[in-house]
Amino acid sequence: MTLLALPAAAAPHVAMRLVAETARPAAGGTVTLAFDAAPAPGWHAYWQNPGDAGVGTRLEWKLPAGAAAGELRYPVPQRLLIAGLMNYVFERPFAMLVDLKVPAGLAAGARLPITVKADYLVCTDDLCVPETQTLEAVLTVGDGAPDPALRARFDAWRRALPQPLGATATWQARGGVFRLGVPFPAEASLDQPYFYPAASGAVDFAAPQKVTRDGDRLVIETKAAANLARGRIEGVLATGDGRGLAIIAEPGNVAPAAGGEGAWGAALAAFAGAVLGGLLLNIMPCVFPILSLKALSLARAGETERGARREAVAYAAGVILVCLALGGTLLALRAGGAAVGWAFQLQDPRVIGALLLLVAGIALNLAGLFELPAPRFAGRSGATGAFATGALAAFVATPCTGPFMGAALGAALVLPTAAALMVFAGLGFGIALPFLLIGFVPALRRRLPKPGAWMARVRRILSVPMFLTALALGWVLWRQAGSIGLMVALIALALLLVGLWLTGRAQHAGRERAWWPALIGVPAALVAVALLHSGAAAPSAAIAGAQPFSEARLAALRAEGRPVFAYFTADWCLTCKVNEKTSIETEKVARAFRHGKVAVLVGDWTDGNPALGRFIEANNRAGVPLYLWYAPGAPAPRVLPQLLTPDMLVALPGNGS
User: Fold this and answer.
1) In the chain, how many domains are there?
2) pTM for the complete prediction?
């Protein structure tokens, strides 16, 4: 790059204005000032740490006596690699914020002249120009109310600032490799993450970074800086869409992610867990009837050794391929930035509705309401029918995997793609294993009961767990889509039932084309299910009555004399999620809050809501978690510790403090 001097008469290449959030700050209060900057096309300014080249902005203030300017806060930068040098820059309009402390004791109407000299470097890909601008503003002491015309702009500028993580990260450097471990919930959204160190001495700026999700943490690996610093390291973790988290990392041991060293050892352990979990799934009510009838069909059919093995392999192929398809789709969605987990398809109420119709149809078939070739998955249908049965068993099993598969499937989401798919295949193999043993071990087949009239009774008995599965799916649908969604599902079930019942009556009467009513009822039911959409789910029993936080709602509840528990959380805050699962969202706490008539307000700061940010700052916190207890009549809230226990919350309504 070539460094040029800027002629005195030349216009700056970064248009910059000094903007105050309020022109009438209160005496003794704080006013936020913004350096509203816009680089000219083809030019860029620099972040606080410019990277391998460049200079950040330097400020020289002239302020009234007693006034003080805080630290300059930058938004999340961009990366620009030129000739092997990494630059942390701003190529688009951006704003840097500063909090100005107003002296106390000033009379209303007093003038506050502010002058600031900004020195910075602005560059193109080929040349750089040092520039200086002197900016001025005159404020007047007043009531401190923000200017309504500027509220939206300041809100947008605050959203672009990195949000405090709320938990300490850990770093280590060994063998020239820098590794950073960041607490970060597995379900939180993340898109093209990148770590921007706030100063040199941590990483080689131009080296590529490898980011791996490892359960509830991120592991970032890159080349360590040649002049490695000691002690605390600070920086910003970009999380996508111009957002980021302010990171503070202390030195320590950072274990490699499961996707790095030892990945295949972790994959083998996860594979073994998946096989065991899949095997146990066969006793679940959504899988056991399918497996039982398919196994009994071999005894009824009197298959040859070769035929039994062929059906067993076909059944296993159907199970494993569906598990691989679901797992592969899951990995693809997560690679695209979606925060989804196993059984992700069940997050769509239309999928739940279709699954409800399928399970109900199977249950009605087992109960003897109708006989239709398509649902006779347990019949003498050879390899094709066995494959379809396996596929059906795997798909129906997805709602039941939770109790057995949490660790294995959680590991699969941070393993390399090939290893992760091996885990999903292990789940399918575990589901198929009992039928494989029956198909390949003649002694097991010989122990199966001989065909007889008892099979009709067993078939009806096996319809009971399928009906129970249908009820469970109905409950899930109600949670997802609310009462209206459940009503739509009941209408769909009624259409399905009428169609299948009329088909069954026609079949029992020996009529031709008996399946026509079903061909009308089934599509009509599916059309009804397609109308489902997510609605307001019924509140969990543990947090019944919780409301979104707003200062107006808080004031109204306090005016009523109600005790209020307000907590502020974010999807990316691991401490928040631990507290919610172990303390806040427990029946013990919910019971105590109901007894004490405690109102619960929840502030979700995941998207950096500026209104919540201002309230959090007003309570002397830089970020989440924040837990506030408002006792009736108390002048100020009690700030609770960042690590909660159920007993701590249960005691709040009792002592009133």
Assistant:
1) 4
2) 0.53
